[in-house]
Amino acid sequence: MSTEIGVHLPCGQCQKQVRGRVAVLINFEKSPEWEARLLADDLNRLTCGCGFRMTYMRTVGTVDFARKTCAYGYPSSLEVYWQDLGLAVEAAFRRNWVVGAPPVVRATASEWRVRAVMGYEGLREQRVISLAGLDDVQVETTKLHLLAGRPEWAGARVWLRAVSADRLLFRVDTLDVSQRAAADVPREWLSLPAPDHVLPGALDADPFVSFRKLWIRPKPVPPDLVRLDGRWEVYTTQVDQREPVIRF
Ligand SMILES: [Zn+2]
């Protein structure tokens, strides 16, 4: 089963209370509707009667027993705590899916891909990677090649959005909104070796498998924020946008 909760929050436009249900834990095999919303960039979005759309941001866990994947998505503002969040994900995985799990699950615990990711974009990307049968370390390595020699994309978040037989489509979210773009690259880039400055094993040494940890020195999670099953919440508005596609 998946877990969802009822929430209410003030509309960012008319201030009326908007009510709705949001996902807290998604079991992909049991909840194709939540999977569809994640893939459609519609996860935990609420629409006010006035038409204003909001995204209810909170920690969301996902699990797929068949594919042996478990990912927790945290609000992106917490990225600087990535090391502690990774430890929290490992603990949550053990607590929720190993200790209390049927023996068949416990026996395969070491085969699972357990990940901490940032935001619903990160959860969506993990699902795209999982459905396409890709290795997320290679995906992160590909992002490093994509960013190399492009100072206008410094500090960007990069998301794998779609996979076809021969192409990979990424979105590059730069700090400078005017520089945002989509990047369409050959799938063969997945087999490029990691750049020299990336030590072997650095990307998947913990559950936060992201090129961004090469640049973000982790800070310890403040004590008042340590309820990492996601009982703290924030919400934001979300702007729909289209980026120019750059083909490589
Ligand atoms: Zn409203």
Please, could you describe this protein's structure?
Strands 1-2-5-6-7 form a five-stranded mixed sheet, with helices on both faces. The longest helix is centred in the middle third of the chain and has 18 residues, at 82-99. Mean pLDDT is 88; it is low at 230-239. It is of the alpha/beta class and 248 residues long. Helices cover 23% and strands 29% of the residues. The protein starts with a strand and ends with a strand. The chain has one domain (3-133, 199-241). Zinc ion binds next to loops.
Number of domains: 1
Helix content: 10-25%
Largest sheet: 5 strands, mixed
Would you list the SSEs in sequence order as H and E? EEHEEEEHHEHHEEEEE
Share in β-strands:
25-35%
- Using only CA atoms, what is the Rg? 18 Å
How many beta-strand runs?
12
Q: Order the strands across the largest sheet as they lie in space.
A: 1-2-5-6-7
Strand and helix layout:
Blueprint: E1 3-10, E2 17-27, H1 32-39, E3 45-47, E4 53-58, E5 60-64, E6 69-74, H2 82-99, H3 103-107, E7 113-118, H4 119-132, H5 136-147, E8 157-163, E9 167-173, E10 181-186, E11 233-237, E12 245-247
Parallel strand pairs: 2-5, 6-7, 10-12
Antiparallel strand pairs: 1-2, 3-4, 4-11, 5-6, 8-9, 9-10
The structure holds zinc ion (ZN).
Zinc ion binds at residues 11, 13-14, 16, 48, 50, 52.
List keywords for this structure.
alpha/beta, binds zinc ion, 248 residues, 4-stranded mixed beta sheet
